[in-house]
Amino acid sequence: MKKWGFYLLLVCGLMAGVAGAAECEPVESDWTFLQICFAPGVPSDSATVPVNGVKVGAPISDGARVNGVEGAVLYAGSTEVNGLQGSLIAASADTVGGLQLSLFNQVRDCCGLQLGIVNMAEGKSFQIGLLNYVKDAWIPYFPVVNFKF
Fold first, then answer.
1. Closest listed residue to residue 66, CA positions, set 76, 80, 56
2. What residues form DSSP beta bridges with 55?
3. Residue 143 near residue 131, CB atoms below 8 Å
4. ∠110-64-116 over CA atoms, to 5°?
């Protein structure tokens, strides 16, 4: 039963990425469907080549835009994610359009949901977690649920 939940989350992330990609600028001619990262800048094209599909961090990922799913063991840190960004420990991005899922989440703007123990956002976001912080929100720090639209 737990496998079905994981597969459902993966499919929802891919669908959100496809929907988010429709609102993005046109797809570049230089992109990849699958990218596996090992450390910041390893492989070197992870910093510049966008992913339209799945980006895996074993154990860390960072770099260019992801339209689809970014998953990492320790840290997921692409600059822009349209879809699902998740990690066991931490996830960080400038913008997320979809779901950001980790123990610690940090984003500038999230058009979607941050789900974790500690969630931080500078701009708009909807957060569910133990401690939530949204800069310039009506109540910046709030447990369980916090938001700014």
1. 80
2. 35, 70
3. yes
4. 35
Concatenate the DSSP letters of all residues of 106-136 into one string. EEEEESSEEESSEEEESSSEEEEEEEEEETT
Quote the CA–CA distance of 77 and 92 in Å, as a whole number: 5
Domain-wise residue ranges, the chain? 2-24+33-148
32-68 per-residue burial string, b: 16 or more CB within 10 A, e: under 16: eeebebeeeeeeeebeebbbbbbbbbeebbbbbbbbb
Beta carbons within 10 angstroms of residue 8's beta carbon: 10
What is the tens place of the pLDDT at every residue in 80-125? 999 999 999 999 999 999 999 999 999 999 999 999 999 999 999 9
> Is pTM beyond 0.85 here?
no
Tokens (6 digits) for 39: 């450390």
